């Protein structure tokens, strides 16, 4: 992915991402499937990972207003998050679908991303991201990650326990 510049409201100079996020998106054409692409963050620190992701997604969505995340998968984040010269609302929910992140533009556009674990094997992460970004892919989140429903629940409990042990 090439480095994308992000214009900020009221600013004449674009703000580039510090580090290009590992992101694959489906083409903008007719949406298919549950996710619009996949993101492979480098860490489990949502507030550290979001600035670069939002800088790139703002090219597609325009100004970003809100991010929805699963509370069991990420450390609790502040309600308002300053990035790129603006404030973004961060909303963590227990019922946010597992392994997803939803980014909403202020113009009501949105992108739902499959979140690949930062600890994933490089080959597995790459193939998962490519499948999620395939134009006609309609595979479920669990199917894209190659996990059964029971296995997914077990992995989620293990991940949540890991976050709690780390003081999240």
TrEMBL record:
Superkingdom field: Bacteria
Entries under InterPro entries matching the protein: DUF5994
Spans annotated as Disordered: 1-22
One Pfam short name: DUF5994
Protein name: Uncharacterized protein
């Amino acid at each position: 992915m090439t480095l994308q510049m992000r214009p900020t409201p009221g600013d004449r100079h674009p703000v580039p991402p510090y580090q290009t996020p590992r992101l694959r998106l489906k083409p903008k054409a007719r949406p298919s499937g549950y996710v619009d692409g996949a993101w492979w963050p480098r860490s489990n620190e949502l507030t550290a990972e979001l600035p670069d992701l939002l800088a790139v997604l703002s090219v597609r969505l325009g100004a970003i207003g809100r991010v929805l995340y699963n509370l069991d998968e990420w450390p609790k984040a502040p309600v308002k998050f300053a990035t790129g010269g603006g404030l973004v609302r961060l909303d963590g929910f227990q019922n946010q679908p597992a392994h997803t992140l939803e980014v909403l533009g202020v113009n009501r556009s949105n992108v739902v991303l499959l979140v690949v674990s930062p600890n994933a094997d490089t080959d597995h992460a790459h193939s998962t991201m490519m499948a999620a970004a395939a134009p006609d892919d309609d595979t479920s989140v669990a199917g894209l990650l190659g996990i059964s429903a029971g296995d997914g629940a077990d992995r989620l409990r293990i991940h949540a326990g890991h976050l709690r042990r780390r003081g999240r």
